[in-house]
Amino acid sequence: MAKEITIYDIADKVGLSPTTVSRALSDSPSVRPKTKEKVNQAAKSLGYRSNIFAASLRKKSTHNIGVIVPRLNSSFQSSVLAGMENIASQAQYNLIISQSLESSKKEQTNALTMYNSHVDGLLVSMAENTGNTDHFKPFTEKGIPLIFFDRTPDEPSSPSIIIDNTQAAYAATSHLLDQGCRNIHHIVGNSGISTYKNRIKGFKYALMDRQLPYTEEQNIYSVLNEESGEEIANIILQIDPLPDGLVISNDACAASCIQYLKKKGIRIPQDIAIVGFNNDAISRLIEPNLSTINYPGYEMGEIAMRNLLLRLSENDDSPGTNETITLKSELIVRESSLKK
Amino acid sequence: MAKEITIYDIADKVGLSPTTVSRALSDSPSVRPKTKEKVNQAAKSLGYRSNIFAASLRKKSTHNIGVIVPRLNSSFQSSVLAGMENIASQAQYNLIISQSLESSKKEQTNALTMYNSHVDGLLVSMAENTGNTDHFKPFTEKGIPLIFFDRTPDEPSSPSIIIDNTQAAYAATSHLLDQGCRNIHHIVGNSGISTYKNRIKGFKYALMDRQLPYTEEQNIYSVLNEESGEEIANIILQIDPLPDGLVISNDACAASCIQYLKKKGIRIPQDIAIVGFNNDAISRLIEPNLSTINYPGYEMGEIAMRNLLLRLSENDDSPGTNETITLKSELIVRESSLKK
DNA sequence: TTTTAAAATGAAATCGATTTCATTTAAATT
DNA sequence: AATTTAAATGAAATCGATTTCATTTTAAAA
């Protein structure tokens, strides 16, 4: 293992003090351009790389941003991450990513690790079964910017980036009602997370606004992924009378559900009209094409990261507003919900 | 911003030296159990967290692993990352992830950033247009473990984790031949990457082994994603005579291609039989279900990370074997290729 | 009880960049 | 040319944990 070059080595080579070398390398205005050039050249020729530990030890900033997501291998989450990475790398920040795997316990461990790694800021999309947010307190207490996105706590004590889930579910449901559906069910995640709570609200309001009956039984709680589609389809098939419309909170899940329903001889949308959520690639590829809520993952990632960087650059200790940024989402109507 | 607690604060509180505190916290055998307990308790009550910079500055290890992928938001890549994260977090390592966006230039920048961030090891899946691997030299020169996965350089100077792309393409092509196809084309990534080169080999060998003609024109080079499917379909439609079989190196691309071909009145598999690559969720959901190569992303991630950690724990400076680990892949036959 | 060996603890140097404060050098002013 | 002012550089302290080497304490052996 070759020895690392330090600023002292550079200082020796160019006959200056380490102080000046340090300043030259960080492009300080109090160093002559000529000197800077000399130093930079020597640095390059020696193969110098800055020791970030020594630097961080003094500066107390890592240029690392932590991100905790439920799952890395989810089409929505990975889009968000892609957006975040894009902005972060432009600003010379690194991304430290970990996944909670929907486990509240692992989320706590992740948070602790992030804290101990001294990330400059933290972005979190919560695990489904996470009840409280105590494990994030160390961040807020130390003044480390913390922003939630998509899966946000019920009572946001920190800024959040979300879509208007109430409105989105309202739009999806209203659309089905417009298509003549009168027995709609709502497949939704089971948890205390605001995301799903609000979708349930939107579903309910859409019915109530038309003086149509709403009962809690219309919500079917389930894990939402490709695997659960069949299981959900079986539950649907046992409902009597058979529903004529479904709002399913996840496209991958909706797609596999549709596939199974079709196998069982159900016609989509004639027998059951369906709207999904996310506008995943799959929604454009299954038959019939899936109506869905377009949910801007990549943009959400970009916005969350920009917002975090903004807070980092505000070098004061201001408490910071706990605003909630709500992104637009839109209903995309395709064949799966068009009865007429 | 509250002041950080250091081992000196703990030392003061319990009336011991920082030395002993340091040793107690790292569970050194030369500290009495009683003393350890006292120190740990004080640490907890003071809200101590170790300053990793100070520690890293001395120990010269960060417990950070860098990963460079072409795209975060790809179903395959995010599975790989999920597998990596899983193993890394168990071993108390952090993942620093960045994406090259298929740009060789950005890959170089990423590599430099990783190098300057002093990652303990690096895992890389190369961008399509990356010709050489000079930008990874600093790692090998400094003895920092570097492992390539999936998209590996042509002449692996570092260990690689791949699947046998030659064999996989051979299997896909042979299957189509078994189905009676005699005019097969191969949709493949355009680049000098070994992945695609080997698939082309496999395609060719399958034909040659049956004494069937092979020409370079049978390979169609393209970007492989959902968006390019339509474009590719158009190219296919203009081939005269129309191919009766396609091997498409990516499921998402194959799916959108199938959709477009169907729109144009082509029957799958009767007119054209198709085999994809990756076993993405989409392959199980489109109609007809897509035959594909099952390509173990999650496992690949786990194996790559385990291998890297192994190299890190071998605390000697041994050159390390440049072995290539080849994972099994398998052809999954579904409707899209079954002519009989 | 004394001697010897082992276990436990501490003092101080170290890792390498940054920063405060002091000093030297150069440029501007009279 | 002498003085003032600004620009450029340097010495040394600092960040906090680790580690080497020395010292003290405790336990085991004589």
TrEMBL record, chains A, B:
Domain HTH lacI-type: 5-59
SMART domains in alphabetical order: HTH_LACI
This protein's UniProt keywords: DNA-binding, Transcription, Transcription regulation
Keyword Transport attributed: no
Tagged with keyword 4Fe-4S: no
GO MF annotations, alphabetized: DNA-binding transcription factor activity; transcription cis-regulatory region binding
Superkingdom per UniProt: Bacteria
Protein name as catalogued: Catabolite control protein A
Organism: Echinicola pacifica
Phylogenetic classification of the source organism: Bacteria, Pseudomonadati, Bacteroidota, Cytophagia, Cytophagales
